[in-house]
Amino acid sequence: MEKHQNLNHFSKFFSKLSYLKNNSQFPYDVTLFFDGEEFHAHKLILSCSSLYFRAIFNGKFTESHSKRFEMNGFDREILLKVLHYIYSREIPYADEDISEISKAANYLQIKSLVDACDEYMKRNMKSKYCIAWWKLAETHPLSGVQQSALNHISCNLEEVTRTPEFLELEPVEVKRLFTDRDSTIQHISLSQELLFSAIMGWVHHDPNERKQHMGNLLELIKTAFISSSFLNTTILKENLLREDIGGAKWLLANFSLQQSYNPFLREPIELYPDAEQPNFVIMDRTNRCLGFNTETKQLFNLANHPRAQGYCAVSYKEDVYLFGGKRTRTALRYSVGTNNWETIPFRCYFTMHSGVVANDSAYFTGGYSCFHRVWQNLVCRYDFHLAKMTQGSTMLMRRASHGSVVCDDCLYVCGGSNRTVDSIMELALSERMDIREGMWRLLPHMKSTHGDCSSAVVNGNVYCSDTFGGKTERFDVRRYNWETVATAPGAMGSIVTHNEKLYRVHQSGIAVYDELEDSWSKVIEYDFDTPTVAVTNI
């Protein structure tokens, strides 16, 4: 059967409808009231264009049989334009009213008008309106408008963030704008300095009310992409950072400075004094890096470390090395002399492993293989002179999150965890390998399990201490047995040795162990966030 389609019929049809709307001689069956005015219309025509009107007039509502219908909550000019569109399929809209037209079309469920507004906004995206259109797309189903707005903001960040629409955003909206999973801002390294300027510009628009949010918003910035010139010419000259505790903490936590500001002492302090050298390099999961001198008991900032969690830290000569870690494939080296981090061209595929240095080599044991996704019993040796990794004798047990030390040319591994088919088992087992022989032997059973721990050597004895609870044991090498000692203070801590003294660095500070008294005493108090410690050879 042949069908005939007259394309001109549709344009003529809507032309007749427009004439019908404006001609009072033709009967109407509903009157819309809004803003003190009335508009005569036809239920059939309204229902054909709008799912909202269709539900009202054809449903079980009192309005279904009424000839009067109130249209409250609509702007008069916007509603007139929408009604004109229903009768003519034409609408005169501009940048300044497209958002309100889109809202009305969404409310009345006129899909063709919603799509038309969608296309208009994507085609005419401008800095003046992109924030308003981005907010609109968050709450209304506009295909592609939100991404188009974010792309425009990313490419015109400086211009957009000077607009009144941006400066009037709520704090949660500012954060949401710069953390949107579709936003390209977080992937453009050069924009991080603009991002700082944008946040501070927003804060300065109402500093008394907004500076309380400053520290939280500044955490959005990837400080690794901030240049030293921008730091010196812009960030350090920003007085609000020094007046607010959140801003001051962000500044201290993210930048290694010769001079900075302590908001608690209200006076300048040196973060890396020339007279001080770090005996401990303390790193936490916020990428903060601090130095600690055991003689002066002073703590000071070092250059931040660009490393994810799960890495292993070892010291060789005056440098600290980080190997492995989550979502990383390189190693890092920190020079105490230059206070600088650099990448080592070496690929690492493990995490939650343990490392220790002996005879110009680092020995890495166990851990979790990010490549094979299994707990390991591998032992790898990294030669610092050759910058080469080789595989050694495998351990008797697969283990991760364990402690390791070297004592009298023997490599000790203690505790840790081992994954079974359906659970993770905490270990109370330790083993030892004579580096000269390459043979592993089990040691006597430990007094208790240590699922996540660290190890250190003091006066020829091996210590093992829990990360979370501080439960500590000592292996007497001469007597060849484990014995329980005083529980170390603080949670999320690890033990290290310096000048034959045992220290524990934990989330609330640093403590030292007295072997004769079998007790721990506080050295300093400080808030660390899951610290990892390396002892320098200074």
Structure description:
Pathway: Protein modification; protein ubiquitination. Residues 28-95 form the BTB domain. Probable substrate-specific adapter of an E3 ubiquitin-protein ligase complex which mediates the ubiquitination and subsequent proteasomal degradation of target proteins. May have a role in synapse differentiation and growth. By secondary structure, the protein is α+β, with helices and mostly antiparallel strands. The chain folds into three domains: 1-124, 2-Layer Sandwich (Potassium Channel Kv1.1, Chain A), CATH 3.30.710; 126-271, Serine Threonine Protein Phosphatase 5, Tetratricopeptide repeat (Alpha Horseshoe), CATH 1.25.40.420; 280-535, Kelch-type beta propeller (Neuraminidase, 6 Propeller), CATH 2.120.10.80. The chain has 17 helices and 33 strands. The strands form ten sheets. A four-stranded antiparallel beta sheet has the order 8-7-6-33, with no helix packed on it. A four-stranded antiparallel beta sheet has the order 9-10-11-12, with no helix packed on it. It has a four-stranded antiparallel beta sheet with strand order 14-15-17-18, with no helix packed on it.
